[in-house]
Structure formats: C-alpha cells, structure tokens
Design goal:
alpha/beta, globular, Adenylosuccinate Synthetase, subunit A, domain 2, four-stranded mixed beta sheet, Adenylosuccinate Synthetase, Chain A, domain 1, 427 residues, single chain
Length: 427
Amino acid sequence: MPAIAIIGAQWGDEGKGKATDLLGSRVDYVVKFNGGNNAGHTVVIGDEKYALHLLPSGILSPGVTPIIGNGVVVDLAVLFEELDALIARGVDVSLLKVSANAHVIADYNRTLDKVTERFLGTRRLGTTGRGIGPTYADKMNRVGIRIQDIFDEKILTQKVEGVLELKNQVLTKIYNRRAATVEQTVEELTAFADRLAPMVCDTGLLLNQALDRGETVLLEAGQATLLDVDHGTYPFVTSSSATSGGACTGSGIPPMRLDQVIGIVKAYTTRVGEGPFPTELDDDFGEHLRKVGAEYGTTTGRPRRCGWYDAVIARYAARVNGVTDFVLTKLDVLTGLEKVPVCVAYDVGGVRHDEMPVNQSDFHHAVPIYEYLDGWWEDISGARTFADLPANAQAYVKAVEEMSGARMSVVGVGPSRDASIVIHDLI
C-alpha cells in the first residue's frame, strides 16, 4: 500500500485540511511533516468547524493514527491547548504520536521572531511571530532543542545554557530586551514531559513498519510549494520544506515508498504575508474573492491577498513535486462572475515567460497574461458529480487542468466535508 503526499501548490491556504479529511477514513496514518503552529487547517464536519494549527487533520478521523513528524517544530503549550480543545469537544486524541527528533520552540525563539520582524520594518518577511523561523535556524546551526531532550533535565540544561550564551547577547545588546533565563526555559519545557512521554516514539520506524504491513500513510504538508525554503519565492517563504521532497525528510519515509502526490490548488490564488504575487487584485474583484471565499488566516486572522488562478505556478508546483493529481478547491467562490481570468504566462519586460522566471527580480516584475473564460451564475454548492456542474464551470475545470500539468481529480464546491466532486478516485 502507498505513502501519499498532500501538498499545497500555491502559497498556502488551498484547503489541504479538507483534502486530508476527504481521504481520512481510507488511510491508517496521517503525518504532519513540516512547519509548526504558523499555519492552520480548517475542517468542517457537519455543523462543526475545527481549526487545527499544529495537529495533523487526520486527528479528526476515527481510527487514524496522527503523527507529528521529525520535520515539525513543536510549541508544546500550543500542542496541549489544541489537544485539550479537541478533548472538550469529544474527539479521541489518544492515538497521537510525536517524533522524538522533532524540535521544540522555546521562549527565546518566540521573542526573537517578534523583535526581529519589528526591527526589519519595511523589509519584514511577514512571519507569524510564533518562533518558527528561529527554531529552524537553531536546528540548522545544531543548537536546537529536540523533543527527546526534555526527558533528560541534565542534558536539556546544558543545551539551554549553551544556546542562551549567544541568544541573550542578541536580545540584550541588539534588541534591548530582557535576557532569557536558563531556569525559566528549562521549567517551561519540562513542565510537559510527563504528559508528553507516552506519545513520543521513533515515528520513522513506526511509519515504515506500517507500510511493510500494507497500511496506507498520508503525508500532510503545512504551507505550500511557493513558500518552500528551497523552491518558493525566497526570502518570502517559510523556514521548512513544504514540497514532496520534504515529506520524505520530515517523516523518515524514503522516496521510493512515495507512490502518489496530490497537489491542492484553489480555483483562484491567495497569499498571506509579504512577497511578489503576479495576479494579485487590489480592486473590487479582489475584495469580492476575499469576502465570498472568507479569506482570512486560520492561524492569524489576517486578510489574505487575493488574485486570479495562476497556471504558471500550478505547472511549477506539478513539476517540483511530481504531482499526480490536483484537487481544485473553492470553485463555488467564482460563481456569479461574467468572465473569469486565468493567468497562462507572464510578461517580463516585453518577454513572454510560460514557466517561472529563473530569478526573483523577474518574478517580482512579472505582469500576468490572461485568458478569459466564460463564467456561470448557477449555484453549484449542491453539485456532487461533474455532470451536475454548469457547462461553463465544467469548461473552467477542463481549461485549468490542461494548463496545470496534472489531472484535476477532485473539485471542491463548498466548505463542508461532503461538498466535493470526485472525478478520479485518489486512492
């Protein structure tokens, strides 16, 4: 049985949580392999809405084992806040497993994230201020704190002492902030040790053994391709690997066991934070997409920047990730538009680019080249087969499929769990 990756094919917020939930009852494990509590998934089940930040969406599917993989950075306080909120709503969270090798967000990471962003001023990156980037930086600098460290207070204290020798110099002498104390940091992290201990294991071993038994593993990305630290619109990216390659490094599953890559794209495009966005709309159409699509961040509540569908970045995501299937979400938001523009290429200084420009400067100056497709006025929220869609909505799906580099296997027509049209079975 396969390992399947679900990745965002734009700048995030495409609806990965819904796609994961759609498959949840047919898989055995769901793995969050990157990021932290800097992104959110919203899942609607019946009349209930769940906003998840650190936990994988599979935690809402009975019988599925949710995994927080080694590629994730974990704010322990947020983890248990989320778990307690789900327990209060009757959700069984007892199957959750956490990688011993995942890194922990400490108090000084959150402080540095916030003060650094303020210090950058107009050159800010648009981070969420939750300590994600500084924690990944510590990981790469080999001064990070891992989940396993909090169970050995002596080792933890030594590591915190070492890292604070530098961090406190930066906090006090550059940013004029109060120094973090070793005792406070150690106390903050060890406070969760007893409750966390039963959840911690070698998740890479667990997942490979599950695949050996013929069970199905779903790997769920945080953020998206254009926010990937290597393949995104750097430096306006996240600090982790949000592509299918990151699914392997962030989970411990080798590449040859990854059988399918499902890319999630909205029927239009959104972005949160700073950075270039060729199809962005600073007009009534942009406000219309934001209002009808409820485009506000699950984690931050920030209004999302909105624009038309960009087939150039969809093709790029298909290539970088090896996308086998696309899930097109929020098609219903486009209802009521006379014409629906789709970006098919860019004009950069009079030169047409059908693929992503090789450098950031060209991408920043890219002017979208549009094709205009006929819109539709019918309510499509009740459609459950492709034939139920109006002719122009069908034509839109077929057109973006042709432009995007992989088949459109599922079309979302509303926020609820069952508001999906399955054209090709995903498993």
